[in-house]
Amino acid sequence: MSVEIHKAGGRFEEIGSYARAKRIGPFAYTAGTTAIEPTGKIHAPYDAYAQTKYIFSRTEAFLNEVGAELRHVARVRVYLTDMSHAAGFIKAHGEVFKDIDPVLTAVTAGLTQPGLVVEIDVDAVIHTPDGSIPEN
């Protein structure tokens, strides 16, 4: 079984010894991702919809680095600073995952900086369109 690791250069990845995405065989996982741009600026402060769209674009890139795609996502976990942000999140989630339908869990959690309202991690299983698992 193959193992692939992708690090995105985040300031805590080396200190904390973690990867942004990891694939083990057909399984791929992403670390919790927020809407912090490469410059360190928060993307669309307090806007759950815009942050969710931004996070999913980053998530897609992280998955691609380890050979997975959004269509492979089986589970999404979202952490919202307040459930009042759920409507913006769910609208964006519906747009990104239309006809993919991963399972979804949402919880309330504190995030690291004011203005961040969404953090997301995903689990994926790399499979063919008919659902079978390809050989590595």
TrEMBL record:
**What superkingdom heads the lineage?**
Bacteria
SUPFAM superfamilies cross-referenced by the UniProt entry: YjgF-like
**A Pfam family per the record:** Ribonuc_L-PSP
Protein name (Swiss-Prot/TrEMBL):
RidA family protein
Q: Which organism is it from?
A: Sulfitobacter sediminilitoris
